[in-house]
Amino acid sequence: MAKSLPKYTVPSLSVEEGATVATLLQDRLNALNDLALTLKHIHWNVVGPHFIAVHEMLDPQVDAVRAMVDAVAERIATLGSSPTGTPGALVAERKWDDYSIGRADAIAHLGALDLVYDGVIGDHREAAEKAGEIDTVTEDLLVGHLHDLELFHWFVRAHLESASGSLQTGGEKTEKAAAGAAEQVAANGSAG
Fold first, then answer.
1. Which one of 114, 115, 119, 173 is separated from 65 by 20 to 30 angstroms, measured CA to CA?
2. Burial class (CB in 10 A: 0-12, 13-18, 19+), 158
3. Nearest to 15 by CA among 80, 84, 82, 83
4. 131-146: b or e for each residue (b if 16 or more CB lie within 10 Å)?
5. Residues 94, 96, 100, 105, CA torsion sign
6. Model confidence over 95-151: pLDDT tens digits?
7. What is the pTM of this model?
8. Residue 173 to residue 180: CA distance in whole angstroms
9. Rounded distance between C-alpha atoms, residue 164 and residue 166, angstroms
């Protein structure tokens, strides 16, 4: 179902340009809402020897991502469009699968979360580039988010990295495989 064009947008953009940027941002809004929920899910379901470190590391990330959600929604509204933040819309519009790990060891969750952040950051970077062709203000907003998202990704990867720089996830492509690889390396006591 195509959305109608907004009645107005920010100065110097056409309503078509504003709607195009708002559509880019709606995808980011969905991704960030999903990320905040995923981080909280992990926070509640992490167990094992690294429990407290991971449990406490995630709440500030949740708070920061929720602030990003608000900023993106407000930018959509500023562009004259209507942000959609309902769970049904998120599920209907998302292009990724639901997070696949339940109660699990901290290292397993971090292995899966490494892939989640990789996907969110890659899509955010692509959206920033596309937005920059039309609207530098939106590009700046997304680039600012990338700073924090990449920092949080580093926090996750620091738990998965060996002294030689290898990641325990071993280049796996699915959350469950990355979680399993990270857990296996942790159980064996080395990351190559």
1. 173
2. exposed
3. 80
4. beebbebbbebbbebb
5. negative
6. 999 999 999 999 999 999 999 999 999 999 999 999 999 999 999 999 999 999 999
7. 0.94
8. 11
9. 6
pLDDT tens-place string over residues 38-96:
999 999 999 999 999 999 999 999 999 999 999 999 999 999 999 999 999 999 999 99
Distance CA 32, CA 45 (A): 20
Domains and CATH numbers, the chain: 15-188 (1.20.1260.10)
Angstrom CA distances, 46 to 51, 161, 165, stand at 6, 19, 24
Amino acid at 144: G
- Of 5, 2, 7, the closest CA to residue 16 belongs to 5
Q: CA dist 22 to 27, 38, 67, 74, 178, Å?
A: 9, 24, 18, 10, 33
SS3 labels along 26-93 = HHHHHHHHHHHHHHHHHHHHEECCCHHHHHHHHHHHHHHHHHHHHHHHHHHHHCCCCCCCCHHHHHHH
Distance CA 134, CA 128 (A): 10
